[in-house]
Amino acid sequence: MEERVPPGYVLVEFARTGHGYFDLDSIDWDGREAVALGGFSAPRRFERRVMWCDNLYPLRFRVRCDDRAEWVIVIRSVRAVRALGTAATGRGSEVLLHTGPAGGLVTRLHAAKGRLRVEGHKPRRPDTPATSPDVLASVYGRPYEDVRALPEGPLLVAVVDGDGDWSLEVGELPEPQPRKGLWARLFGRQLTRPP
Questions:
Q1: Whole-angstrom Cα distance, residue 43 to residue 20?
Q2: Is there a cis peptide before residue 126, judged by omega within 30 degrees of 0?
Q3: Neighbour order of strands in the sheet with 8-16
Q4: Distance between CA atoms of 9 and 122, rounded to whole angstroms?
Q5: Torsions phi, psi of 2, nearest 5?
Q6: Nearest CA-CA partner of 166 in 84, 98, 43, 81
Q7: In this structure, are residues 166 and 116 in contact, taking their beta carbons and an 8 Å threshold?
Q8: Do residues 114 and 163 make contact, with C-beta atoms less than 8 angstroms apart?
Q9: Per residue in 18-42, pLDDT tens?
Q10: What is the mean pLDDT of residues 2-6?
């Protein structure tokens, strides 16, 4: 890209044709992979990702795909994301903005087969070391429901792998249940040690 974007998070949207493998990475000034944005062979045609730009060098991308495939990459401001609010539904990849308090995130994958991975990207200042996103949900191959901690906003919530329909719901994090030992689970009662 000839234009430099200001430091901060940006949306990377890409669309492609064809059925073969497609892989997209941002690369640094030396041609090395900086951020892996997607590699898949599924027939999905449109993907949306979020990535951090330091503005140390112009944005550059490496695309690997079938030579008959056509593709386009669009960079947008994160102002284009919709608010997560108390619930959201979708299909495929998406980036949402959580601005509320910490709580619980109920994640549901409604497809009989597929993948669902949800990541949380915290705010950061320019020129600070990159941190890995928080994994808010990760499942493969079956209908699924899970509740995990959702940090206080602002937080960009990215549905990275969203095969089929999914839904997110924000609520309170349930109280953790005490874990029982193997013998207690087998015999249905809590065992205690003598003093």
A1: 8
A2: no
A3: 46-53, 8-16, 71-77
A4: 10
A5: -80, -35
A6: 84
A7: yes
A8: yes
A9: 777 888 898 888 888 888 887 766 6
A10: 75
